[in-house]
Amino acid sequence: MELQELKDQITKNLEDGNLHNIKSLLSAYHPSEIAEILDYIDPEIHSNVLSSLDNETASEVLLELDDQHRHDLLEALDNEKIAHIVEEMDSDDAADVIADLAEADVAPVLSKLDPEEVEEVKSLLQYPEDTAGGIMQTELAEVTEDSTVRDAINWIRLIADELDDLQDIYVIDTAEKLLGTVSPKKLLLSNPGVKLKNIMTEPEVSVTPLIDQEEVAKIFEKYDIFALPVIDESGKLIGRITADDVIDVITEEASEDMYHLAGVQDQMHPIYTPTLTRIKLRTPWLLLTLVGELFIALIIVNVFQPTLQKVAILAAFMPAIMATGGNVGIQTTTIVIRSMGMGTITFSQIYKLVISEVKVGLSIGIICGLVAAIAGAIISKNETQFVKLAFAVFIAMVSATLATSFVGAASPLLLQKFKFDPAAASGPLLTMFNDIFGSLVYLFIAMLIF
Amino acid sequence: MELQELKDQITKNLEDGNLHNIKSLLSAYHPSEIAEILDYIDPEIHSNVLSSLDNETASEVLLELDDQHRHDLLEALDNEKIAHIVEEMDSDDAADVIADLAEADVAPVLSKLDPEEVEEVKSLLQYPEDTAGGIMQTELAEVTEDSTVRDAINWIRLIADELDDLQDIYVIDTAEKLLGTVSPKKLLLSNPGVKLKNIMTEPEVSVTPLIDQEEVAKIFEKYDIFALPVIDESGKLIGRITADDVIDVITEEASEDMYHLAGVQDQMHPIYTPTLTRIKLRTPWLLLTLVGELFIALIIVNVFQPTLQKVAILAAFMPAIMATGGNVGIQTTTIVIRSMGMGTITFSQIYKLVISEVKVGLSIGIICGLVAAIAGAIISKNETQFVKLAFAVFIAMVSATLATSFVGAASPLLLQKFKFDPAAASGPLLTMFNDIFGSLVYLFIAMLIF
Questions:
Q1: Last residue within a domain, chosen from B73, B106, B129
Q2: What is the pLDDT of residue A264?
Q3: A418/A303 same-domain check
Q4: pLDDT-based confidence at A372, cuts 50/70/90?
Q5: CB-hemisphere CA count at 13 Å for A353?
Q6: DSSP sequence for B351-374
Q7: Are strands A142-144 and A169-172 parallel, antiparallel or unpaired?
């Protein structure tokens, strides 16, 4: 069916109060497709469409929406429906939705949930969103070491409804300490009477709940696994993280790095986020940068104005010097931040990395400096000045690329060392540093030689 | 054991020819840890260390290395060892390694492999690296629809050695057409005598081999799956893609976007890539940008020099105008490229998106323009000029942010429409556009009013 037709039918059925028809109309689509279809429909009726769906589908649709959109929808839904929807979710998703509710709605929604589910959600809500505990789920298959394969299968049968994805079966002792894992393949191929302790393998890797989600992502990349057990300090199994959730984490972390690099403070939906919020998320670094750039103006007015009055042509090459230095700096800082984000470089290689980046930056600076100096000599058309001008342009460009390579490589590493986000060494700040440094070096040399 | 000690012992054992000792020394470490340990050891002896390991461990270590490092190591290993190592790999990884060999080594290595494996590798090599076919593996569990659960388990037992991760069992007809899937959980819980066609579910989603790997990643994100079947045009099952490989794809694609945005042409290892290659990967966009910036110089010298000579203070505010416009443009293009990369926005929303970005850009431009104009008036200290100067600064800053918001939002969308990489609308080019536009508008207004 064409989207336009679908949209018209949904709107019409809604007006007529035929919620059941909407459900049948949408039954042909996957929840993630329904989430996309919502984008084409008037936001005012999104909550009605969601209410028309069965709880399981509604829960999956809700999880496919981006944060802002989900937040808006939750505000429009009544608590009864939210509780029914949350009950269909894995514990990690349920906790995310509860965390997203308005303060006043949390207690009413929790009161409508199954007490066991409330316990699980509460235990997950204690961990920050971006930690292993924040992305783990409590649904998993755990069996004691003396259980047989037959026992394990019977147990899985009992919990099958809440356990959407099986993956590894975790073997624990009576104190719930994690002893080993058994893959579904092993379970399928083993004799029903065999004890799990005889077929389990030691857990390849596990994490504690307060580990950063970025570290969790690196572990999945490194070990090529599909599920990762989460244990507390005593070794007790408290949850697991699955590959599908890690895929979302990697996407989110990469976005965060890109946005921070561009001086955007946080992720936002480019259409659903209100304009004012978007301006607030983007302006702070820009204003800080602007202050730095205006500082250049202050220095020029107070120190270099006579030089510029004498040799107005100097101003013509400021854009080239500042742009080249800025671009080289952004390249360097992007490479360093990405290498750190992907775990390509280890801490012991930091010194090597800075040296290597400065070497490349310097080479590029010399190449660009020569091109600019020659162009400067040609453009200036003045025999007495062109050598001096070319000299000032060359030295300024090489100094600027050298300085931004060093700062671009070293600042994310320093930020990391002091436990800040390396990507906070954002582009706008680097541009500002480069512009101040490049333009002042350039004008200072010019002042000396002219 | 301390790294330094480990390193010394490895070097010593190598000198003494005790390869077996190296193997025992490293047996305590996971292959991905051995890959990291290599970073601390003289690259000259990496191939000897790898040769000392058993083939399975060596194959896993090799796969953990980045491209450049792996390439270097393959060149140093003899073909016999490479063949043994490749035999231990999943077909997708084997194909990647074969594709990475020097032309002259391909035939000798293939001749040493099992003929069936050669067939598989050759069938995978026909697909471009960044497509579904390029990342799929041929190892999977497929059984015909009339097989019983017992038959399926027996079949899995037969192929268990080559099938590292089970995930979904694929149900096919006699022409190998994909009919449905059965999860390991379902297989475990079903009666041995039940036919698979009675318990299978329709495949939720599948792809053809020439689909771009970025689309594959989006499907994994959207459907929260662990494995995705790949079928040819006739519906015949030819491979599967697993979540662990998709995690690598997402990381790779995000890096590519970040590097392109920074005007770096391709991914590179920040230490192992030779300096000359790195300069080559980074210089092209920089030089192109430089030409644009030198064009500004040409115009200033030929058109605006008299104005600048008369009002030298004008030059003082050029950095602020160019930096603000450039930063706003980079923010916009980053948000748009990331939204496209994550599939946050659909094609029908493009028009909305551009409008929305221009609105935000204009607002930010007005805020920054006001700040700069006031600062300009204060800094200029000259009663007759300050109003004119503030006016020129304000108009130039608003025009520049408006223009870069529009270009920053529209250019990746246009590139996408014409099947280019949206991230090729790279930062350096946008900076160049902004600098040309911003500085010329500024000087033109100044020329008119002074």
A1: B129
A2: 86
A3: yes
A4: very high
A5: 27
A6: HHHHHHHHHHHHHHHHHHHHHHHH
A7: parallel
Residue B261 lies in a domain: no
- Amino acid identity for residue A418 in this structure: F
Mean pLDDT, rounded, for B316-331: 92
Within a domain: A248:
no
pLDDT tops 70 at residue A448? yes
- Of B104, B129, B154, the one marking the end of a domain is B129
Residue B411 sits in a domain whose CATH number is 1.10.357.20
Residues of A in contact with B143 (CB under 8 A): none
Query: Does A158 contact B at CB distance below 8 Å?
Result: no
Interface subset of A 348-377, CB within 8 angstroms of B: 348-349, 352-353, 356-357, 359-360, 363-364, 367-368, 371-372, 375-376
* CB-count burial class (<10 Å; 0-12, 13-18, 19+) for A40: middle
Instruction: Identify the three-state secondary structure at position A170.
Output: strand
Q: Which of A290, A334, A371 sits opposite B372 (nearest CB)?
A: A290
Same domain? For B171 and B292 the reply is no
Q: Are residues A60 and A157 in the same domain?
A: no
**A254–B250 C-beta distance less than 8 A:** yes
Contact state of A270 with B353 under an 8 Å Cβ cutoff: yes
Those residues whose C-beta lies under 8 Å from the C-beta of residue A229, and which sit 6 or more positions away, are A140, A168, A170, A178, A181, A203, A206, A207, A237, A239, A240
Nearest C-alpha in A relative to B373: A294
pLDDT of res. B244: 92
Q: Is residue B62 part of a domain?
A: yes
Q: Which amino acid is at B361?
A: G
Contact of A284 with chain B, judged by CB distance below 8 Å, is answered with no
Dist CA A274 CA A4 (whole Å): 26
Pairing of strands B169-172, A142-144: unpaired
Indicate whether B254 belongs to any domain: no
Mutation pick from B293, B398, B401 vs chain A, by most beta carbons of A within 10 Å, is B293
Interchain proximity A258–B263, CB inside 8 Å: no
pTM equals: 0.85
| pLDDT tens-digit readout, B362-372 | 999 999 999 99
What's the CATH number where B209 sits? 3.10.580.10
- Residue B326 contacts A where some CB pair is shorter than 8 Å: yes
Tell me if A356 and B275 make a contact (CB, 8 A cut-off): yes
Closest-CA distance of chain A to residue B25, Å: 19
Shared domain check, A327 and A289: yes
Q: Are B122 and B151 within one domain? A: no
In angstroms, the CA A152 to CA A174 distance is 15
Neighbours of B409 (CB within 10 A): 27
Residues of A in contact with B334 (CB under 8 A): 258-259, 261-262, 264
- For A234, the domain range is 142-243
CA distance B371 to B7: 58
Between chains, do A223 and B32 touch, taking CB under 8 Å as contact? Answer: yes
Kindly state whether residues B213 and B166 are assigned to the same domain: yes
| Domain tally, chain B | 3
Strand residue runs (E) in A167-226:
169-172, 178-182
CATH code of A32's domain: 1.25.60.10
Digit-coded pLDDT (tens) for A306-323: 888 888 888 999 999 999
Is the minimum CB–CB distance between A346 and chain B shorter than 8 Å?
yes
Q: Do A286 and B327 make contact, defined as CB atoms within 8 angstroms?
A: yes
Residues in chain A with CB shorter than 8 Å from the CB of B220 are 244, 247
In this structure, are B205 and B326 located in the same domain?
no
Q: Across the A/B interface, how many CB contacts are shorter than 8 Å?
A: 373
- Domain shared by A332 and A430, yes or no: yes
Q: What's the length of chain A?
A: 450
Using the CB atoms, write b or e for B24-54: b if 16+ within 10 Å: ebbeebbbbebbbbbbebeeebbbbbbbbbe
